[in-house]
Amino acid sequence: MGPTKTRVVARASDVLARLGGDEFALFIPNLSSEKDSCEMTARLRKAVATINSPHPDVHISASIGFAVFPDEVRSSSELLRLADERMYQDKRSAETPSGQSRSQRGGHQRQRCAAAVPSQYPMLPAGSV
């Protein structure tokens, strides 16, 4: 995601770091709940969905995982590990050829977020991310 898209989603206090290759971490201080994480996830998905590929056969998507400190983990290494684990769950759910939509297959993170995200940040329909 380019700097312009990141600015739309992230706040001035957030820190975006490239972990390597096409993996990034967005550290978001002062989120008070999993609901806040879900809202940010929805905003990220919405921003990625607006990226247009110059090639009609290339579809741009993102697999997203999050973790909440200190609610779910106790250290920075656990924070990255849990977020990474959830990101790979999201990635696997997108690749499952089961005939179900991504939101139906999206795993626990997507199911939890679907219930927590307010209407101004709706979860995007399958295929749009």
Automatic annotation (TrEMBL):
Transmembrane segments: none annotated. Residues 88-129 are annotated as: Disordered. The lineage of its organism: Bacteria, Pseudomonadati, Pseudomonadota, Alphaproteobacteria, Rhodobacterales. Gene3D superfamilies: 3.30.70.270. It holds the Pfam family GGDEF. Coiled coil: none annotated. Residues 1-108 form the GGDEF domain. This is GGDEF domain-containing protein. InterPro entries: DGC-Regulatory_Protein, GGDEF_dom, Nucleotide_cyclase, Rev_trsase/Diguanyl_cyclase. SUPFAM superfamilies: Nucleotide cyclase.
